[in-house]
Amino acid sequence: MINNIGYVFLAAALAVSLYGVVVPHLGVVRNNWNLVRSAQFATILNLLLVLGASAVLMRGFLMDDFSIRFVWQNSSTDLPLGYKIAAFWGGMDGSLLFWELVLAGFAAVVAYSYQRSNREIIPYVIVVLNIIQVFLLFLLTTYSNPLGLQAPIPLEGRGLNPLLQHPSMAAHPPLLYLGYIGFSVPFAFAIASLIRGKLDNAWVVTTRRWTLFAWYSLIVGQMLGGQWAYEELGWGGYWGWDPVENAALMPWLTGTAFLHSIMLQEKRNMMKVWNVALIIITFSLSILGTFIVRSGVLNSVHAFARSEIGPAFLIFIALVMVASFYLMFLRIKLLESRHTAERLLSKESTFLLNNLFLVGIAFTVFLGTVFPLIAEAVRGTKLSIQAPFFNTIIGPLGVALLALLGLCTLIAWRHSNARALLRNLRLPLGVAVAAAALMALLGLRHPGALLVFSIAAFTSTVLVSDYLRSVLARARQQRQSLLSAAGDTIMRNQQRFGGLVIHLGVVFLFVGLTGNLLNSERILTLTLNQPVRVEHYTLLFKGMKEEQVRNARLRAAEIEVYRDGEFLETLRPARSFYPTQPDPLTEVAIRRTLAEDLYLVLASENAGGTVTIRARINPLVIWAWFAFPLFSVGVVAALLYRPRRLEAPETPKGLGYA
Question: Which of 323-337, 421-435, 481-495, 557-571 has the lowest mean pLDDT?
Fold first, then answer.
């Protein structure tokens, strides 16, 4: 009975969302704010209804109610509590409900927060957000119902995919959803501004924090996904240009370009057309990512099975892009910028170049991801584009972007003096040359790694020295201590400081990624108590050990690790056996240091008591993970910044059209 109530909640939410699509427009046409206010309350009611449906599904997981087909497919009685909760978004239908739940929450926050501000465009912001919800709720009540029942009722469930039973995977999907859905808000504001013809920078200022939040959620979600792949899949890497990985990367890249270009609109009233186009593309790429995951058209360890809702997402993407760009072209004259980049040697020009690199990388990823689909549709042959394609094109673009990141910091707005720029370049260039020379002396011979490390040294020197110059200048001008000046410099320009810290995180990320050029791997057969050398490590196999960990039985090889005769630790690469999974899974063992990871995989147990181990040395991996706290600090600082508005053109009074 209660499960049927959950479905009723979803059907009611669909009706309420339809109300939220129609009524705000009537409020505008009739100049009746009460109608708009009723739609705002309806948006909040919609959240309560979706929460009710979600609570019913969560109850099914917590109480092992296998009468719900989705619970039976993704849970079991022996599943730990944390993973029963994570199973909510562990399958296609539940993840779609989670998507709608988050979107309903965001829409309710927007409707409540902007009751008195943005009065001219908020009715159509509500309309756009409800149109998206109507689409999702239609799928949930037809093709993808997570509350569907079955009979007879099984005594046991199939269990959550063991690959997903990892802490990173419990948080990775929700963070990606927060990122995907977070871009819905600036998209809705942009479309509402186009409809109303109110195209000053108000929508950019209003949604800046939403964009930052979405951007941060996507990058953290991708990093956690990389950590999951590194620790759970046993292949030794954390990014493989998988289609679903690419699906998350594309909106993050265009979202990054959008975050940079809106600064030009805020400060110089430039790039209005570009910003509207970017947010349309970013939102569309977010929906495309959902299509790739849920359609089953591309093979991926992350993707769900082939389903009927794939074509629906494809049609929705097409409608969104056609309608959005049609609106943009209707308002193209209102989007004309007041200013252009005055000189080639200016921060405006470097921002434009930055955007071109980011969009170029995003287009390359898009092409490599969807081309196999196009080839199969046209020629009927299955193709697969592998990592070398992406690395060959994106590698040089990424390195150029890293160098531009440092160069842009040194260049002034409007026009930069060439002589002053060369003077400021002396220190970072000197540090870059010194870093390359030091690496070469230490034995590094890989030209690509030397190049990236020298550019990373250049960019980090620019970022740190830029902050220190600001601190010293403030200390002199205000006659403050260096510590006081350092704090005031941060508090008086949170956006600049936040950007600096985020860019330092990007440098750390590049350093960590470059370690992939230097890794090595060996396949070893270990005999009991017989030491084996792996580069500067000695491995000593001490036997097999079996233990129960949560709902899995682990059979691990105990391997003592030594370096220069000194014992470091015991690593336990293992194979795990789950009651609901017929085949064993790999459980890697990792020794982490600042310089490198020792990565061990138990390949097999052999006759005669020996084991076969795959041993990898992965340099600098932890440097990529260090980017996470830097991104976090930088985003918090940037969120504290309150941007000013440019002068807005006169707009019609009241709600009605002029």
Answer: 481-495
Could you give phi then psi for residue 239, rounded to 5 degrees?
-150, 120
Q: pLDDT, tens digit, for every residue of 83-125?
A: 999 999 888 889 899 999 999 999 999 998 887 778 889 999 9
- Nearest Cα to Cα of residue 262 among 252, 277, 247: 277
Q: Tell me how crowded residue 95 is: count the other CB atoms within 10 A of its CB.
A: 22
Residue with the two structure tokens 């008591």: 609
514 residue type, one letter: T
Residue pointed to by tokens 């790739």: 292
Categorise residue 234: left if φ over 0, alpha if ψ from -120 to 50, beta otherwise. Answer: left
Residue with tokens 């690419």: 246
Question: Nearest Cα to 114, choosing from 193, 190, 29, 40?
Answer: 40
Is the separation of the CB atoms in 249 and 365 below 8 Å?
A: yes
Q: Are 553 and 560 a contacting pair, CB within 8 Å?
A: no
* 610 neighbors 526 (Cβ within 8 angstroms): yes
Peptide bond into 152 cis (omega under 30): yes
Query: Identity (one letter) of the amino acid at 562?
Result: Y
- CA 257 to CA 357: how far, in whole Å? 9
Q: For 599, phi and psi rounded to 5 degrees?
A: -120, 115
* Span 510-537, average pLDDT: 92
